[in-house]
Amino acid sequence: MAAAVAAAQAGASVALIERAPYLGGAATHSNVLTYCGFWTQADPAVQIVRGVGDDVLREIEILGGDATPVRTASNVVIALLDPEIVKFALDRICERAGVDVLLHATLTDATLAGDRIASVAVYDHGGTGWISAHAFVDASGDADLAARSGAGVRYGGHDGAVQNGTLVVRFGGIEADADTSRTAWERAVRAAKARGLDALTKEHGLVIRIPGSNDVVAYLADEAYDVRDVRSHAAAERRGRRQAWQLLDAIRTLPGHAAAYIVTTGPAIGTRESRHVVAQRPLTEAEVVGGATFPDAVAVGGWPAEHHPGPGLPNRWIRIKDDGAYEIPLGTLHSATHANLFAAGRTLDADPYAFASLRVMGTAFATGQAAGVAAAQTARNGVTKAEHVRSELVRQGALIAAPQPERTLS
Length: 410
Fold this sequence. Notes:
Number of helices: 11
CATH architecture of the largest domain: 3-Layer(bba) Sandwich
Low-confidence stretches: none
Oligomer: single chain
Distance between the termini: 28 Å
């Protein structure tokens, strides 16, 4: 969405292909009701994603939501979301930008002209049609466009390992004064496993109340699967739903939880990692956690490296130097094999722990906006230059430089 809006603001004619019936990605389709990566983790936190991402936060507030940053018990800064507000906010922003949003549409194929993508096949209930364009952004999460077009892609890290996914579950019916801390829920899950509930994987994870509703979302149903394999993916969804019902059994034993019920699962399991678009300039862990800067920076990241190695295994966190931020160069967004293909979000190229920071949604707004501008300029000029991308991003209100400690603002 950020790529499409930014490209339109840069003067391009833009189509956004979305297989779901709404925009929003993990926030609306996987129940991930936490925007991570908009702020640094310093105290006070500094907002490092502006531009389109900031437009979304403001639109959420206009519609009655609350996008105020909050610091969790794990000492990270997030915004809590209402998925219905997010859906409507994104609709409104895309409409104002003049983006042609094609919902219920699935990309199935692509054609090439030399080292450039020429067109893509899009399937909907009316059949398959073709869309031609001068430049493309793969923000599919799974690098589907890159894979269909024969671009360089890599599954997971260089050893093929990927982070596990999680089916996020939203629970209602929990009393307002009930203890919903992760430690209380961990005790309940451990006790449930001890009495024979055998589907549960993770005991300790994010459990957080959603303001306004008293509902609780839990990020505990971890699964390992290969998103490229429909049977593997589908089996993980089924196992995740089984976990959700066992979680419900577990928490109903806690004080104030006896009337708990499942509001919703997913709908889709939250995939953290699958394919990456092989880029001209991959990002490394040392650069991310060291707060690296680049002369061709087009986006800023500030979420710690949050790595999920497998179901039930402890997450590993590596915080960024001084709880600050790092810059993301244009080469990390640009395909190494296809001149008019750019990547955004979790399709980006990085080593495992750099990617564990890059993948979150706040940072995806920043890389999406940069990729959209780069694609628009490539469509117009045949090539793109970092200084031109940076200039247009600044015009659009985006941030392209990591804030320095001496000039941070609350």
